[in-house]
Write a structure and sequence with these properties.
- Helix content is about 35%, strand content about 20%.
- The chain is an alpha/beta fold.
């Protein structure tokens, strides 16, 4: 038997001989802490003198903290001896001594009035009195501005004086302020022991004219948070050693500027570029607006700085295979595809290019001329080495003339891919955007002098197909009349970039052809008047509704509602569209799309950043400003030596698991696998969306924070609300819940009879939650998620819709009349309010 070492008082048996003292020890073991007044009540002692006598006799078995008492370490040991003694006396076989753990919940509630914002629709004193009677609540404190530094010491004193171990904060939205509140309690309790009631954005600011309903709703929101925090089990947290390195996906202007800033700060930087060279699209431009040098020369200086920086390592022709790990410590597996030329041996002599007999369209020139199958992308390419595209390698292997002709033996047509692994603390996506290409309705044809803005850049460039001479491709003559059509392909997205580009073109045309007439045509339904000022040539701008390009013999006519415009050269100022690689990358890099299909910065998880036009159209100066800002964020993050790993995740009960494999097939991140007849969850790949939990038929899977039990308890508490009709809402954290917050920020009023439960993803919403809500007396259920194609977790809203279809197919009575599913983005607060009010009105008619 394990030996217990304890200093036992000489009169131990006399001390424990009195039943009242044994009862005191057992009460303290059960409750953890007890106030003096609570001890009097529980022991049914009438005089304080009697209690004081017995407390003194217990000596070093108890410890006094203020007006409360708890067991000392010796006292805890005595409790174990008492339990062991009881077992021995009862004849029970004793094999080992185990410590009995108790789930003690002493909940403290903080109400933040946010100045006086919360006090307008709610009587805070009345609310305080009501919630102080909730079970396990030991204290309620009201603070004017919880997030202000001046309250730190007051909060910590309140926390310690009341022996609080769990906290509910009734204040502003946890989505935007939880990190601030976590910091307040950083050294006091685990963050999992903190829960929130959003009484500002989702109550006071949207229900300001309904004080009675608002007060009842606030009480229930807080009560539900209390119940949730009590249900929270202990989670083992781990710290992660921070890697002082960064991976930048993309070698364009944003990626290069970022790399230099981060390297200068002492961080190791890996630039991962998919194409054979650095430079991005800017390398093809004639000139960067606001930069005196030509684009090619400017970039060559940037690349030289990168190459000379010892903290920067450049991988071209390289793609990401897999990403694992968490913020501060990611492992990235890369594949470096063969360029079939050893860049260390290649001198760039171009002998191979001169003897190659096969040509193809030159994508660097946007197809305006041709190149050889083996080629150097452009004059200032880095690395300055020949390359062959993978799609052309079989033709080259049939020939092999270049391989034999290379004096340095640099060409290897049998070169294989190389797999590499790097470890980084942060990831930055800077892969840029693509250009709009569906130009059929504009009769796009460079040989007929209807060209895109990208093709015009190459005509203006000194290393372009016309050596910088502004001439028509059809006959080599200078144009007399040029028309620029704005925002081609950007029907739903108007950006300053298009107008800055027009200004640049006007200046360059005037510089090269001073007598040339230029007209700019813009769809007036898209363009605010303030955008026109960007062009600075208002007399040349025409705002039109109807636009059609026709060929009449050798003449090109643009027909509009403002008249017809004849042109020698028509430039289609094409807009930026989302990079085609985004769809595949988001499966490994964890981000969502915005409404226009670009990377959404609002949904990025910790440790990943977006920079440049990957997040939407922007000009050079905006890109540089953004990259400087991102660099500061990354430096701040990686300045720490250790970070707390993400605590949210999935747990599995193997005794319940039936190995059906549904979780394996539904996980959008391939984080779940079946190995040796056992389900395995990759904690690094798992993003905590909860989709697998919602479809597990045996309830073997469970989230470790937002558990099924917590959500069901919230529904139960909210159902006490007395006003009808009432709506239970499940909103995804990044879009639906954010839209509800947005309504609050704009103080858009909607009916208060709605309770919002935040879920990580709508794919987490179990049909059980919907049915439970209706059983508990809710008249309707609202589910609000991301828009299709914009889900951070790939397709959460699609998975929800499939589950709802099953509900309808099995014939749940009138489910269609009581259930609304909607998709919003984070800034559509007005739409959220409209949906709630419309649903409430419809349910009112049904209830009546």
């Amino acid at each position: 038997m394990k030996k217990i070492n304890v200093v036992i008082p000489i009169d131990l048996y006399n001390i424990l001989g009195h039943p009242l003292r044994r009862k005191i020890l057992l009460l303290l073991e059960k409750e953890g802490y007890m106030q003096y007044s609570d001890l009097l009540k529980e022991l049914n002692i009438e005089t304080t003198g009697q209690l004081n006598f017995h407390l003194t006799k217990l000596g070093n078995l108890i410890t006094k903290d203020g007006k409360a008492y708890r067991l000392s370490e010796d006292g805890k040991t005595i409790i174990r001896i008492m339990e062991l003694n009881e077992k021995i006396l009862s004849g029970e076989e004793v094999e080992k001594i185990e410590t009995r753990k108790t789930e003690l919940s002493r909940v403290g509630i903080i109400i933040c009035t946010c100045g006086s914002e919360v006090e307008q629709p709610i009587n805070v004193e009345s609310l305080k009195n009501r919630i102080s009677r909730i079970n396990n609540v030991v204290s309620v404190a009201v603070f004017d501005n919880l997030c202000q530094e001046k309250n730190q010491k007051k909060i910590q004193k309140w926390f310690k004086d009341n022996f609080i171990n769990k906290v509910v904060i009734a204040a502003c939205s946890p989505r935007t302020h939880s990190h601030i509140f976590y910091r307040i309690f950083e050294n006091l309790i685990p963050i999992t022991n903190i829960d929130f009631a959003n009484i500002r954005e989702q109550l006071c600011w949207v229900n300001s004219k309904k004080p009675v309903e608002a007060l009842e709703k606030a009480r229930l929101l807080i009560e539900a948070a209390v119940e949730r925090v009590i249900l929270q089990k202990e989670i083992k947290t781990k710290t992660v050693e921070v890697q002082k390195s960064v991976a930048i996906m993309g070698g364009g202007i944003a990626g290069m500027n970022l790399a230099l800033k981060l390297a200068e700060a002492g961080l190791k930087v890996y630039i991962i570029e998919k194409s054979p060279t650095l430079g991005g699209k800017v390398a093809r431009w004639s000139k960067i607006e606001g930069v005196l040098d030509c684009a090619s020369c400017f970039l060559s200086e940037q690349i030289l700085s990168l190459v000379q920086e010892k903290n920067i390592e450049i991988f071209t022709n390289t793609e990401i295979l897999n990403v694992s790990g968490s913020v501060g410590n990611f492992t990235i597996e890369l594949v470096r595809k063969p360029r079939y030329v050893d860049e260390d041996k290649c001198t760039g002599c171009k002998r191979c290019m001169s003897i190659c007999t096969i040509t193809k369209k030159n994508e660097y020139e946007y197809g305006l001329d041709e190149r050889k199958l083996i080629y150097i992308p452009f004059v200032n390419a880095y690395p300055y080495s020949a390359t062959i595209d993978e799609e052309d390698i079989e033709k080259c292997r049939e020939c092999r003339v270049c391989e034999r002709a290379c004096l340095n033996k640099a060409i290897n047509l049998d070169q294989k891919p190389t797999i590499m692994t790097i470890k980084v603390g942060a990831k930055i996506l800077a892969i840029g955007s693509d250009l709009y290409q569906d130009l059929e309705k504009y009769n796009h044809n460079p040989s007929n002098d209807i060209i895109t803005s990208a093709e015009f850049e190459r005509i203006l460039a000194s290393d372009g197909p016309t050596q910088g001479n502004l001439i028509k491709l059809s006959d080599g003559k200078e144009p007399q009349k040029i028309s620029i059509i704005q925002n081609v392909g950007n029907q739903h997205l108007s950006s300053d970039y298009c107008y800055i580009l027009s200004r640049k073109y006007l200046e360059m045309i005037r510089e090269k052809l001073s007598d040339c007439e230029v007209e700019i045509l813009i769809d007036n339904e898209m363009v605010p008047e303030n955008r026109l000022a960007l062009i600075n040539f208002p007399d040349k701008v025409h705002s039109v509704k109807i636009l059609e390009i026709k060929n009449e013999g050798n003449r090109k006519i643009i027909n509009t509602d403002k008249g017809n415009f004849e042109s020698d050269l028509i430039i289609l100022n094409i807009g930026m569209v989302p990079n085609k690689d985004l769809s595949e990358l988001r499966k490994t890099l964890d981000f969502a799309f915005d409404d226009n299909g670009f990377m959404s910065k609002e949904t990025l998880s910790s440790g990943i950043y977006g920079c440049g036009t990957v997040t939407g159209p922007k000009d050079y100066h905006t890109t540089i400003a953004e990259s400087n800002d991102v660099a500061l964020q990354v430096i701040s993050l990686l300045s720490k030596d250790y970070l707390l790993a993400d605590i949210s995740g999935i747990e599995i009960d193997y005794e319940r698991c039936g190995l059906c494999g549904l979780c394996v097939s539904i996980c959008p991140f391939n984080a779940i696998s079946c190995e040796d007849d056992r389900i395995v969850i990759d904690d690094f790949k798992c993003k905590g969306c909860g989709v697998c939990v919602s479809i597990c038929p045996t309830k073997a899977l469970e989230m470790n924070v937002e558990t099924r039990e917590k959500i069901l308890k919230s529904i139960e508490v909210y159902s006490k609300y007395s006003h009808k009709p009432k709506i239970m809402a499940f909103c995804c954290e990044h879009c639906g819940y954010a839209a509800a917050d947005e309504a609050g920020l704009k103080k858009i009023q909607y009916n208060p009879n709605i309770f919002i439960e935040m879920v990580p993803c709508t794919g987490r919403v179990d049909t059980e939650f919907i049915l439970k809500s209706l059983e508990q007396g809710f008249d309707g259920v609202l589910v609000v998620g991301c828009k299709h194609g914009s889900c951070r977790y790939i397709d959460g809203i699609n998975k929800l819709e499939k589950k709802i279809k099953i509900l309808k197919d099995v014939g749940i009575p009138k489910i269609e009349d009581k259930l609304v599913i909607s998709s919003l983005n984070a800034v559509e607060g007005y739409r959220f309010a409209e949906i709630v009010n419309r649903m409430h009105n419809k349910l009112s008619e049904m209830v009546a």
